[in-house]
Hints:
The chain has 17 helices and 15 strands. With 445 residues, the protein is an alpha/beta fold. The protein is globular and about 65 Å long. Residues 111-113, 116, 145-147, 219, 223-224, 252, 254-255, 278, 280 line the site of pyridoxal-5'-phosphate.
Amino acid sequence: SLAAADMAHTLHPNTNLRAHEENGPLVIARGEGIRVWDDRGKEYIEGLAGLWSVGAGFSQKRLAEAAYAQMLKLPYYHTFTSKANEPSIRLAETLAEITPEPLTRAFFTSSGSEANDTIVKMVWYRNNALGRPAKKTFLARNKAYHGITVASGSLTGLPVNHRDFDLPAIPVRHLTCPHFYRFGAAGEDEAAFTRRLLAELEAVIAEEGADTIAAFIGEPLMAAGGVMPPPAGYWEGVERICRANDILLVADEVICGFGRLGTPFGCQKYGFTPDIMTLSKQITSSYMPLAAVMISDHVYGPIADNSARVGVFGHGFTASGHPVATAVALENLAIMREEDWTGNAARLEAPFQAGLRAFADHPLVGEARGDGLIGALELVADKATKRPFETPGAMGRLASAIGHDEGLIFRAIGDQLALCPPMIVTDDDVAEIMTRMGRTLERLT
Ligand code: PLP
């Protein structure tokens, strides 16, 4: 059977491999709108849009047609040594138009991890070009997710992605996760929490020396680590401190970008302007693998100068600017504009977030949180003390299994249940998601 073949021959990412040998896969066979069906014909609402990424839903024919048309015309060409192709040029132009003001240029990769690795190398290359080879350390946050390659995995701040992989392997300092519910101190209000985090940032810069710190990278809203919106004033403060110390600010918008929070990009929701931005996932609604690094002229200048000095910017991938992936992205962004996904997220934010917060009274829910069309329920053993369960993740796994039974796929991040539905959801869809989540929680108690 298909399941037996999978159990025998696939090594699954992010999976307990021995448990998989016993339990086998959930084989998803087809999709339509916000729903998918498994190979036994059972229907699920995809409450996480795949991996936070299928904005268009699972049956957008225009994306298939864009890929097919481009494959017939020019299925592949590379972008090394000044070669170019029309879809990748048009996409770079479009991204420069729609991203915040200082960002003017795109470098394409196939994944968010490769994009963040590219950022690390670009920033190092730039600082070498500027004659400050000691300015190399990255600042990131505990519980951040920036990918899993050697450099991007080092920026990630999750123990499971570091332990036994010998990461971090690049110079990086992880700061306190800006999640007030979990990391606010006893007696501290949100404003005092923000002040403490900003003081920590200043102290780390003073301790390391600003001349050794290259960049600060952060997801506007931390997603894969547990859906944690920042406290008020946090990003304005981070931006101010970075500017004062000549530290580049990198917004990893792999999940928050393209309208997820009800603004075109996440940085606009929280009021800061990055020098560099990482984009992926919803750029093609994940119909094709694609990511982009957006940079400002300020970042670009020294890199371009150095490429002239050494003869080449010696970095790039076979699939950088792939014409089929970029053609699909262009069509996806056209649909995003026509259907106003950003406006839809802004409009549905109220019912979606209210639906989640209605579960806050449930005996197992410690916090219901989120912004825009992304949210999470954090399950705890004791609401009053916020005490987690004795076996972390077990309750999340149970909830996930019951959710499947109830026809709702969400992501259990430990004991945090994350939702991030396709951008095409309607009021009725949001109501149905909350109904299925409610039934899941009822059966959990
Ligand atoms: N950055 C963020 C914010 C992400 O959420 C992810 C993936 O979830 C990545 C980077 C890594 O992207 P990829 O899995 O395409 O390498």
